[in-house]
Amino acid sequence: MQCHRVKGQADLVLVHGQFSLLMTLETPEEPPMIPERFLGVDLGIVNIATDSDGNSYTGTPVDVVRQRCSRARQTYQATGTNSAKRCLKQRARHASRFRRAVNHSISQQLVAHAKDTQAALSLEDLTGIRDRMTVRTGQRTRHHSWSCNPLRQLVSYQAQRAGVPVVLVDPRNTSRGCSRCGFTDKRNRRSQAKFSCLRCGHTAHADHNAARNLATRGGVSRPDLCAPVKGQLAFDW
Ligand SMILES: [Zn+2]
Fold first, then answer.
1. Residue 234 domain flag
2. At CA 187, angle to CA 184 and CA 188, rounded to 5?
3. Cα of 188 to ligand 1 centre, how many Å?
4. Separation of 206 CA from ligand 1 center, angstroms?
5. What is the residue range of 76's domain?
6. Ligand 1 centroid to 35 CA: how many Å?
C-alpha cells in the first residue's frame, strides 16, 4: 500500500465568537494538459461568466442577496442602535461568504468544462483595462467590487491546479466584433444582451459572441499550445 503524506498546516482561530480551523494543504498539481482547442471566457457584468460554448454561469443569486442586504442596511441605518449595527455587520459577512461560494462554484464549473473538453482557457488580458473601459455609472461599483478580480484569480488558480493552460488575450473590441465574419462596429452591439452583425447578420447573445472572439484570439496568440489539425481550421463554428 502506498502512503501519500500531505504536507500542511492548521491554525485554530476565534473569529466573531466562532472557532474555525484554517487548514492549508499542499496537494500536487495535475500535469499540464495538451489542449485541442480554446475555450473563450467572457467575465461580464450581468452574466458573471459566459463561455464560447454558450454556457452561462450566472451571478443572479449574488445580486439578489446584495439587493436584500442593501434594503436591510437602509432599515438598520434608520434605526441606528448597536444591535442594528451588529446585524448589519453579520449580514455583510454572510454576503461576502456567499459571494466567495458563488465564485468558487463558477470557476470550478468553468475549469471542469475546459478540462473535460480538452480546452485551454482564453481570458481577457485586463492589464490597464480600466483606462479604456466605459462602464455605466450604476454598474461601476458592481464591476469593480467583485465581478472581475476575485473570479479571475480563482479561475486562473484552479486552472493551474487542474493542468488547464490559460492564455490572456487582447480584450479590445471583443464585444463589438462579429465572431463569424470579424466585422467590427459599435452598432453591432444592439444592447447589453444582444449582438447583431451589420455586415453578415449573425446574431448571438452579446457575451457569447465576445467569448467566441476570445477563443479565436487564444488560438492566434498561442498557436503553439494546440497542435494544428491538418487541412482544417482550428475553429469550426
Ligand atoms: Zn458578421
1. no
2. 55
3. 9
4. 13
5. 7-225
6. 27
Residue 203 C-alpha to ligand 1 middle, in angstroms?
A: 8
Query: What global pTM score does this model have?
Result: 0.72
Return the bridge partners of 150, or none.
none
Nearest to 181 by CA among 158, 206, 152, 203: 203
Quick one: which of 217, 170, 224, 175 has its CA closest to 197? 175
Per the structure, how many domains does the chain have?
Answer: 1
Separation of CA 184 and ligand 1 centre (Å): 8
Q: How far is the CA of 60 from the centre of ligand 1 (A)?
A: 30
Taking only the tens place, the pLDDT of each residue in 121-155 is 999 987 755 444 555 545 444 444 444 468 888 89
Q: Give residues with Cβ within 8 angstroms of 53, minimum separation 6.
A: 39, 113, 117
> Tell me: the pLDDT tens digits for 31-54?
989 999 999 999 876 668 999 999
